[in-house]
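Re: [ENG-882] Designed sequences occasionally contain unexpected residues at chain ends

Forwarding the minimal case from QA. Structure tokens:
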């Protein structure tokens, strides 16, 4: 805002940036909304003053700027050739950006946004993570090794040793390792129980289960009863209540007793299988 006020005090397109609240300008969407309407010359000055990046001194950006000049000259020559020798009085045409100019503007805007947007706190990312692993994490062999993993290649796992930056970094590594370890155990249970159900497609293109498993049963019904509003500062519902129905017909007595011992706060995974 200070650079805009010092360098472009009379520019109407930048006046809103000068006077807007900082809290309404530090997001990526807000910055893109204000920067996309700016011309190339203004973006070059902002990059030089804010990001300390001179377009003329950077070899990549200088080459792109040279292509922009050549494209503009070619465009002007083409427009001059199309005009008649004695043109009639007409309105002034609006200048059209070339493809090279658009690419350079997009690059400069991306540089400015990466420099000015509010950084995402690692603690906020951890708070937004689900309590239990998602489908993408469970079946990702790069993060959670499979059974045939023999140590031939390194995994993208944090190393838990005495070399850590802060106590927060140490706790974060413990959290990631514990999360991946629990994910591996959950995936082992799923890989053991799902094949026992023997899912197959029926005549109506539905899914039919011809097998049975000790701790896996087909659902008789699922109905969401209540979804509460998110709490202040959250983006997900504060509570979701659902009614799940299943049938234990044909189960052995000891297995029925295990299902009957389910109480509040016990974890049940709902799996969607399409044969």
């Amino acid at each position: 805002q200070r650079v805009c006020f010092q360098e472009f005090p009379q520019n109407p397109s930048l006046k809103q940036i000068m006077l807007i609240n900082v809290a309404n300008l530090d997001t990526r969407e807000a910055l893109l909304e204000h920067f996309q309407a700016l011309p190339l010359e203004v973006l070059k000055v902002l990059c030089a003053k804010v990001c300390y990046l001179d377009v003329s001194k950077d070899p990549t950006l200088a080459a792109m700027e040279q292509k922009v000049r050549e494209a503009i000259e070619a465009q002007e020559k083409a427009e001059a050739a199309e005009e008649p020798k004695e043109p009639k009085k007409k309105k002034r045409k609006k200048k059209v950006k070339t493809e090279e100019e658009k690419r350079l503007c997009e690059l400069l805007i991306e540089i400015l946004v990466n420099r000015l947007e509010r950084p995402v706190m690692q603690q906020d990312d951890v708070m937004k993570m689900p309590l239990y692993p998602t489908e993408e994490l469970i079946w990702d062999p790069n993060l959670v090794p499979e059974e045939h993993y023999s140590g031939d290649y390194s995994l993208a796992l944090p190393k838990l040793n005495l070399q850590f930056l802060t106590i927060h970094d140490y706790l974060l590594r413990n959290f990631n390792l514990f999360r991946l370890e629990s994910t591996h155990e959950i995936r082992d249970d799923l890989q053991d129980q799902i094949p026992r159900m023997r899912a197959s497609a029926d005549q109506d293109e539905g899914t039919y289960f011809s097998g049975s498993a000790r701790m896996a049963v087909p659902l008789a019904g699922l109905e969401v009863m209540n979804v509460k509003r998110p709490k202040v500062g959250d983006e997900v519902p504060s509570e979701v209540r659902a009614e799940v129905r299943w049938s234990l017909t044909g189960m052995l007595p000891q297995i029925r007793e295990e299902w009957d011992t389910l109480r509040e706060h016990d974890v049940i995974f709902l799996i969607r299988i399409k044969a």
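QA comment: On inspection the terminal residues look reasonable. The beta strands are 199-201, 207-209, 219-227, 240-246. Proposing we downgrade this to a documentation issue.
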